[in-house]
Amino acid sequence: MRGKLDLDRRPLVLIWELTQACELACKHCRADAQPRRHPDELSTAEGKALLDQAREFGEGQLVVLSGGDPLAREDVSELIEYGTGQGLRMTLTPSGTASLTRERLADLDDAGLRRLALSVDGGDRAAHDAFRGEDGSFEATMAAAEAARDLGVPLQINTTVCAETVEQLPAIRDLVDDLGAVLWSVFFLVPVGRGRVLTPIDPDRAERVMSWLHEVSEDAGFGVKTTEAPHYRRVALEESDDDGDFRRRLGIRAGKGFAFVSHTGEVFPSGFLPQSAGSVPDESVVDIYRDSDLFRRLRDDDALTGKCGACEYRAVCGGSRSRAYAATGDPLAADPLCGYEPAGYDGPVPDQHPAD
């Protein structure tokens, strides 16, 4: 599918943030989640209309239901069943709370859930719960992972990389393997929401982590991908003898192969790039993705500026547009996490710390 995907017409991933309500207070939370649901969340009927629109992207469109904690809504199974009936591949990223029971997972499985993504940000209970801000989160997450395995629901593990978690990565890798996950999705911190109080790793450390992730990917029984770190593809291409899989994923980044619908219907290039290009249900998410000025500019590799614009890998990578926006206010600027120097480039090197 990736090799045939026209990113001007269709995203690889469409994320819908069902709600920002969540019981946890995670240090990195992009959504700055709240205890209660927002009164202006998309309703069930409006959500189904959004899924109808998503179907227009084409059969098998991947839709990720996220939050906050999407299980704070009672209509999750209904929405998954509806989307599945529309030919969409429906996946879910719940929080590790008491709501994530075996019975609830069985209900989601019956509705047609294609994959469950759980967050693990520490290699043991103490490290994970401290990062998540809730005692018992690790235990709930492990129980949900076991239930997913018993039900035959494919499991994805998401991990945030920052100064507070980077030393935990080897232990988390072992957990990913032990849990039988099919994919480890590694998120490199973008300082938005509560994540502004966390410390990003520096570009040299990021390069070493990406090189290590590539080594893991060659031997592991699960896939490895990065989020908001597209230069992982450049690292992998430099180190890999078989670059076919990476070539099939060229250029996927915020606004280019990726779109995000907020809990109130605003359409963003990414949940980490809070610049609206329009809103549903008044507008079609298909039209916004394909035709809005913001999305079109983000898909233009030649519109990138600074070091990213000069880089010979810009079509492979293109840098994190979200991190560039967080650091400079310009989504087309250079990604401050990347330490690579394009051949012959003698312009300014971006500050790795976000602007105040």
From TrEMBL:
Give the Pfam families listed for this entry: Radical_SAM
Q: Which GO terms describe its molecular function?
A: 4 iron, 4 sulfur cluster binding; catalytic activity; metal ion binding
- Cofactor names: [4Fe-4S] cluster
Record-linked InterPro entries: Aldolase_TIM, Elp3/MiaA/NifB-like_rSAM, PqqE-like, Radical_SAM_PqqE_MftC-like, rSAM, rSAM_sf
Please name the SUPFAM superfamilies in this protein's record. Radical SAM enzymes
Radical SAM core domain spans which residues?
8-219
Q: Does the keyword Metal-binding apply?
A: yes
Q: Which UniProt keywords apply?
A: 4Fe-4S, Iron, Iron-sulfur, Metal-binding, S-adenosyl-L-methionine
PROSITE patterns, A to Z? RADICAL_SAM (PS51918)
Name used for this protein in its record: Radical SAM protein
Name its species.
Haloarcula salina
